[in-house]
Task: inverse folding
C-alpha cells in the first residue's frame, strides 16, 4: 500500500487534503491505512463505501478552506445515517496537506515504520527502521494532540474476520496487536457489545459479512453456538475461495460438520480449504491463550 506515498511525491499544484482510515470495526469497505488524496475538484485513490467516501470528500474539501496543516478526526458508523447496512465503524483522519512537510518521503521504503504525530496546528511524520506498530480503535476517545500513530510502510494488512467474542476470541485479539492483521470482530450476543472492537449483529447480517469479505481475508469461526458455526462455515465454503477459513472444535464436531457440508452440496475441493481444527498442528493445550497463540501463528503463515 505505497501508492498513496507515490501520490504525495507528485501532488498537483493546488491545495490537497489527505484522508486516512485510522481504524475500522466490524464490516468496513477498506482496511486501516487506506488513504486517498482530495483536491477541490478531484481525487486520487478511494476509501470505498459509497456514502462514506462522499462524506469524507465533503470534509476534506471543507478542510481545504482552512490553514495548511489543519486536521480533524471523524467517526462514521456505517448504518442508516450513511444509508449503509455494513454495521461497522470507520475512524478517519482528514488533513490539509502541507507540501513543505514531506521530507520524510525520501526515507519511505517497505519494511520501515511511518510515525505520524498529531501536533497543535500540523501533523508531523517521520520514518524509522525500528518501531512497534500501534493499534487504533474505531470506538472510544478520538486521538488528540500529541497522539502518535505507528504503521508499516508499504505493508497491506490482511483482513481478519473473527466470529466469536468468548474467551478464545478475546485471547486472539490480545495476541494480534501490532501484527499485520486488520480485525473485524463479530458476535450475536448483545452483552458482547461492551467489549471494545466487537460488532454485535443478527445471524443473517453476519452471514452477509462472510459473503462480502475480500478474497485475501482470513476467517476464524469460534462462536458460542454450534449451529451458527455451521452456518458460517457453510457460507464460507459456498463462496469464492478465501485466504483462510478456520474452525474451532473437537474431532467429533468437525467430522459431523464435514459430513453435513458434503450433504449440503459443498464439493470435496472446496471442503479441502477448511482448516479444522484451527491452530498449528501439534499444539495441544486447551487454555485460551495457548489456542490464541497457535491461531495467530497460523495466520502469519498464510501465503499471498
Result:
Amino acid at each position: 500500500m505505497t501508492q498513496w506515498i507515490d501520490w504525495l511525491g507528485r501532488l498537483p499544484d493546488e491545495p490537497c487534503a489527505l484522508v486516512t482510515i485510522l481504524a475500522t470495526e466490524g464490516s468496513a469497505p477498506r482496511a486501516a491505512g487506506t488513504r486517498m488524496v482530495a483536491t477541490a475538484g478531484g481525487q486520487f485513490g478511494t476509501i470505498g463505501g459509497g456514502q462514506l467516501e462522499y462524506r469524507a470528500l465533503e470534509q476534506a474539501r471543507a478542510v481545504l478552506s482552512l490553514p495548511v496543516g489543519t486536521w480533524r478526526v471523524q467517526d462514521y458508523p456505517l448504518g442508516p445515517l450513511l444509508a449503509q447496512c455494513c454495521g461497522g465503524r470507520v475512524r478517519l483522519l482528514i488533513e490539509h496537506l502541507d507540501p513543505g512537510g514531506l521530507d520524510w518521503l525520501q526515507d519511505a521504503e517497505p519494511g520501515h515504520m511511518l510515525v505520524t504525530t498529531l501536533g497543535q496546528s500540523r501533523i508531523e511524520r517521520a520514518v524509522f527502521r525500528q518501531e512497534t506498530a500501534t493499534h487504533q480503535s474505531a470506538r472510544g476517545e478520538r486521538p488528540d494532540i500529541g497522539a502518535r500513530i505507528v504503521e508499516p510502510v508499504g505493508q497491506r494488512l490482511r483482513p481478519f474476520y473473527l466470529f466469536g467474542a468468548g474467551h478464545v476470541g478475546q485471547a486472539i485479539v490480545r495476541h494480534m496487536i501490532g501484527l499485520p492483521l486488520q480485525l473485524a470482530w463479530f458476535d450475536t450476543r448483545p452483552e458482547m457489545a461492551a467489549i471494545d472492537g466487537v460488532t454485535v449483529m443478527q445471524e443473517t447480517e453476519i452471514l452477509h459479512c462472510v459473503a462480502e469479505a475480500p478474497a485475501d481475508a482470513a476467517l476464524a469461526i469460534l462462536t458460542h453456538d454450534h449451529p451458527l458455526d455451521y452456518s458460517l462455515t457453510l457460507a464460507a465454503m459456498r463462496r469464492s475461495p478465501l485466504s483462510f477459513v478456520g474452525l474451532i472444535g473437537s474431532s467429533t464436531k468437525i467430522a459431523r460438520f464435514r459430513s453435513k457440508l458434503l450433504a449440503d452440496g459443498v464439493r470435496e475441493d472446496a471442503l479441502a480449504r477448511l482448516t479444522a481444527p484451527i491452530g498449528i498442528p501439534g499444539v495441544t493445550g486447551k487454555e485460551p491463550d495457548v489456542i490464541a497463540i497457535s491461531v495467530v501463528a497460523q495466520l502469519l503463515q498464510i501465503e499471498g
